[in-house]
Structure formats: structure tokens, C-alpha cells
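Pilot study result, target chain (190 residues):
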Amino acid sequence: MACLNTAGRGQMNSVQDSRIAKTKLFFEQRFDFLAKLSKEITSSIKSATKKGMQAVFRPNLTSDIAWEDIINEDGVNLFEKHSSTQFYDYTKSFKRMKAFLNGELPSNYHLTFSCSESNEKIAQLVLQMGGNVAVVFRNQLPETWNGYQVVDGDESDLRFLDKRGVVVGLIEKGLAKKDETGFVKEGVSS
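Predicted structure:
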């Protein structure tokens, strides 16, 4: 509950209703969902190009879907369909993170591991393997976390631009401000 779902506009009923409708479409009419998503991506790319910008996409916001395994009607995944487009996500799946670090995921898809109240040892393992780990801190970012440099993840969400082997520090937002589960770490260098 303390994660991103209730941060920012996520608190609004209309946003929650839209997320529910999209989730239902994804599970009940997968090919229709994928066709709509692809159309939205293509439209966003065209719009960004007209403005002299580059569109990048984060398919998981409040989910942890293995998009690399989701195949559309044409027999390809999202990253193959839009092979010249950068995608990125956060994940709590060690299996997916390990596959990313081993170069087994599409080259246009970047993952950052998400530390939670129950996976801190796995997060440390990901750091040892050269991966990046997002950690939510209370009030302020420390310079280091478990001996690893902390970079300001609130400055930009473009995780694929981060150097490898760093902690992506985020300041708590939404319901995370009231978290007492251990999801939010105290901002002290360690």
C-alpha cells in the first residue's frame, strides 16, 4: 500500500478507476489491450518526434508484469514491436532482474530492482551483481546505503540513464509517509 499506487494523481478516484479498467482489459481481452497499447505508443512517439523529443515508456507503474513474455497477435512482444524505442521498469522479481543483468532481456528494456520491507537481502545481492536498486527513504536521501552510492531518483525517472551498481533514492510520497512496515528506510548513510 505504501508504494506508488497512492502517490500523486494515484490518489484520485478517476485514476484508480482507469487503472482497474485497463487491468480488466489486459486480463480479459489481451490482444485488444495490446493493440490499444501499441497504438498509444506509436501516437506518443509521433507526437514526441514532432516536438524534437524522444519518447520512452514505462509499461509497469503499479504492476510487475513480465512484458518480455507477453506476445501480441503478430507473435512478438512489446519491445520487438517497437524495437527502436526505449522501455524501462522497476521490478521486485529477482528472476527478471537477474535475466536483465545477464543480458537475457531485450536490449531496449531496462530494469531497476525495487527494495521493499521484505526483500532487502535480495536488493543487496542485486547491487553486488552490478544492478541498481530503488530504495524509498524518509525525509532525506543518505549519501550511501549499505555501502553503495545513493543517487537522487526524484530528480528524473529515466532509470536507464543511471550508472550501474547504485541505489536510486526516492523520498516517500502518498501513504508511504505513514509507513511503519520497513518499506520506507530512514535516511541515514550506512
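One observation from the pilot: The helical segments are 13-28, 30-50, 78-81, 94-101, 120-128. A full batch analysis is planned for the follow-on phase.
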